[in-house]
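Re: that chain you flagged

S.,

Sorry for the slow reply, it's been a week of failed gels. I finally had a moment to sit down with the sequence you sent. For the record, here it is as I used it:
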Amino acid sequence: MKPRANSEGERSYTQILKATALIGGSSVITVLFAIIRNKAIAILLGPAGVGLMGLYSSIADIAYAIAGLGIQASGVRQIAEAVGSGDAERVARTATVLRRTSVVLGLLGALLLAALALPVANFTFGDHSYAAGIVLLSASILFRLLADGQIALIQGMRDIVSLARINVFGAFFSTVISIPLIYVLGTSGIVVSLVAVAAAALATSWWYGRKIRISVSAISTLNVRREVSALLKLGAIFMISGFLTLGAAYAVRIIVLKAEGIAAAGLYQAAWTLGGLYAGFILQAMGTDFYPRLTAIAKNNAECNRLVNEQAEISILLAGPGLIATLTAAPLVVRVLYSPEFYDAVDLVRWICLGMMLRIISWPMGFIVLAKGAKAAFFWAEVAATTAHIGLAWLMVEAFGTVGAGAAFFGLYIWHSLLIYIIVRRLSGFRWSDQNRRLGLIFFPASALVFGALALLPLWPATVFGLLMTALSGVYSLRVLTELVPIASLPAALKGWFSRSA
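Prediction finished late last night. Pasting the structure tokens below so you have them in one place:
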């Protein structure tokens, strides 16, 4: 295969790979801390405790999504647009209004969750005794939204280094705070740890956010209204999207809880964490660097489509071998990162991995909808995805037990990938490049073959086959990456690794 990237393409591929390496590198450290944290919590609390933590986290996530009105995502877009315009005054105005709005929404969100603690506890747990924990949990909503104002500014300014450091310190504090609290307090420490971790995240984001110098001048009432209106109009769509996505995740956990018990909810929580572990590297980098870049060129359909294809190509090449490896090593991963009590989560992990492969494909396309501000298309796509996810989970958990929740996630992304493709075809005339179609014909059958082998063959022959496919796909991905990106343009650490591998 001959190199096919021109100089402009090389620069774009290099930028994508650098951002992915930087955010992905910080995510590796984040995952190492997560492994320690999850292992300790699994041993200390068992499946039932992990399930309880997952339910509290879902409650906090939904409340945060509603209270935040999507300003973190809309704030990134507004800041990126202001930076792209070269207007320093506009950047300062947007940043100031964003920070102040975050404070107001954080306070309102915390008060709302505290006020609704009793009905939320009864609906989720069927027991009002959990209401006190939910009242305490409301403090985390305030801390998270205050942090959002800082992070949106940093991301909109594309300060990738600071974002990577925030990720690392966030994971560190989450680990060193959570484990001692849960060790001392047991299940009573779950909510305390979630609040303390949110406070630590706020402190970290403030520390790095203060380094961005914004010249704040007097802002007229009219300008404040304009900025708030721009934030909230688009933010409301993001809020609805976040609510639907997190609401679906919450609903699936409730379906599993009601059908199979709280221990099964713990298995689902563990599988969800493990299934998304590797894909999370790619998806986080995509949202951090790719989204602001795409927003800056969203009006140019040809450039927009080119960038999406390039992002998807790099993402598939990086994610494919890792997800095939996770499929293969799922039993070992579950035992090592959790405990033998969680072994029943293995099949769940594999189904979620298949869904994550499709998620990696659909996300770059979905950012076209966001970058173009196509509110109606974005909203109805999210409604369709939520309906499909909950409907599939309800049917499949009833039919197949807990593993049906993982199969429902895979089914969701078959549907969602097709729907998003139809939408972006209409918005920008998007088509998959020949290279990406070729990659799809390589990685999707490879994943399906490994999944089928693990389901039908004895453990050791299936594992050997899976490892062989992992090695072959890894070598192929490395070969293509070295053709797309000049080794000389890479960061020093990556340059040495690629040179040795090549």
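What I noticed first: Confidence is low (pLDDT under 50) at residues 1-6, 497-502.

Talk soon,
D.
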